[in-house]
Amino acid sequence: MNKEELRKIFNQKKQKTDPKTLKIIDGFMNATFNEFQNWFKMEKFIKGCHYCGTSNEKSFELYQLQRTGLRPDATRGGKRGKRLELDRKDPFKSYDDLDNVVWCCYWCNNAKSNFFTAEEFMLVAKAIGEAIKKII
Ligand SMILES: [Zn+2]
User: Fold this and answer.
1) What structural domains and CATH numbers belong to the chain?
2) pLDDT of 45
3) For the segment 52-99, what is each residue's pLDDT rounded down to a tens digit?
4) Separation of CA 22 and ligand 1 centre (Å)
């Protein structure tokens, strides 16, 4: 991933307010792009989803299957699943706590929600990873 793509991800993940609902959308508040870049070097994007191991490339293949009509489309209009996403292992900590942030596939991010702890979710993620391997 090049610097511009990383900057785009960082900017998209900044905390903001939804203009329609006025609800705060969690994101980076004080973390700087440099800190995020350093985190990126440590947190192995190449290893794939922290929970199920699905690679960014496989995530994109799943996205394409849905967008081309070969699978039911659960991408929320193409907005989700195109690449690995950022997840907070503990969703009640800030995104600024980068030790708490991991790469995560859309399927795990969606299923984990705020309900399962990262440890509890590993059981679910194992099944998600196996199911994804059957698809692609
Ligand atoms: Zn996953």
Assistant:
1) 3-135 (3.30.40)
2) 83
3) 999 999 999 999 999 999 999 999 999 999 999 999 999 999 999 999
4) 30
Could you list the beta-strand ranges (E) of the chain. Answer: 16-17, 24-25, 85-88, 101-104
For residue 11, the CA-to-ligand 1 centroid distance in Å is 23
Q: Residue 44: is its pLDDT beyond 90?
A: no
Distance 37 CA to ligand 1 centre (A): 22
From residue 123, alpha-carbon distances to 40, 48, 108, 117, 130 in Å are: 26, 17, 11, 11, 11
Distance 125 CA to ligand 1 centre (A): 6
What residues does the ion ligand 1 have nearby, CB within 5 Å? 49, 51-52, 54, 105, 108
Q: How far is the CA of 20 from the centre of ligand 1 (A)?
A: 30
**Model-wide pTM > 0.85:** yes
**Which residue, 106, 104, 107, is CA-closest to 128?**
107
C-alpha–C-alpha distance, residues 82 and 80, integer Å: 6
Per DSSP bridges, beta strands 85-88 and 101-104 are: antiparallel
